[in-house]
Amino acid sequence: MKIRIILYLSLMGILWACYKKESDPLPITPELNYFLEIAFGNEFGEPYQAIRKWENNLKVYLPETQYTELNGELDKIIQEINTLSKSIKISKVESETEANFIIYFGSGTSYASTYEPNASSLVASNWGLFYIYWNNQYKIYKGSMYVDVTRATESNCQKHLLREELTQALGLMNDSYQSETSIFYQRWTCYPAYNELDKQVIQSFLSSKIQAGMTKTEVINIWQGI
């Protein structure tokens, strides 16, 4: 009887250990931690509690078309984002009435006075800026951005600002100190390309599995495949 009891208790211990291992949450990887920082953080305030994301395709209008190099860079960025995205796509349109997103190349004051008065208090300290609107379901439905070509005169700096602000306007709204070559890097840089971590963040965010309104817990579960 004593042997049987010991054997029974040993088996219970093995089963409990297996159950505990299976029910423990998976660790948050550095890649997931970076994604959560970018997708739920807020550069100008408290972190968000839910994902903000476009439900419809972005239709981009450029009122200033004389900046040939920046226009060409925009085409490149759009192609890269569309390749990474499994949900929304970005395209240019010929008139402002067709657009739900405006990209302005010019001074901050001109951008604020002409396209986004709500950004007037922010443009003095930001050489690039995006401003977006979402509904009560956290679905982004319109927005705009600008690159201040009067202050940021170096070509790679302009390209970096264009890439950063357009990417963040997708709903990836925070900056980070984690990666110096990232388009989301907090400090000033002029690196005009995505690094591999950026591509992973964008691809994950623009998958069909990540939806507007999702909480951090829901996103973690999807990322980890639960």
Please explain how this structure is put together.
α3 runs parallel beside α5. This protein has a single domain, classed as 3-Layer(aba) Sandwich (Collagenase (Catalytic Domain)), CATH 3.40.390.10. It contains 7 helices and 6 strands; from the N terminus they run ααββαββαββααα. With 226 residues, the chain is an alpha/beta fold. The longest helix is centred in the N-terminal third of the chain and has 22 residues. Strands 1, 2, 3, 4, 5 and 6 form a 6-stranded mixed β-sheet that branches. β2, α3 and β3 form a beta-alpha-beta unit.
Biggest pleated sheet: 6 strands, mixed
CATH topology group: Collagenase (Catalytic Domain)
- What is the second-level CATH architecture? 3-Layer(aba) Sandwich
**How big is the Rg?**
22 Å
Count of DSSP-assigned helices: 7
The CATH homologous superfamily corresponds to: Collagenase (Catalytic Domain)
Domain module tally: 1
Structural class: alpha/beta
Order of helices and strands: HHEEHEEHEEHHH
Can you tell me the CATH class? Alpha Beta
- Summed over residues and divided by their number, the pLDDT gives a mean of 89
Low-confidence stretches: 1-23
Proportion of residues in helical segments: 25-40%
Concise overview:
With 226 residues, the protein is an alpha/beta fold. 39% of the residues lie in helices and 14% in strands.
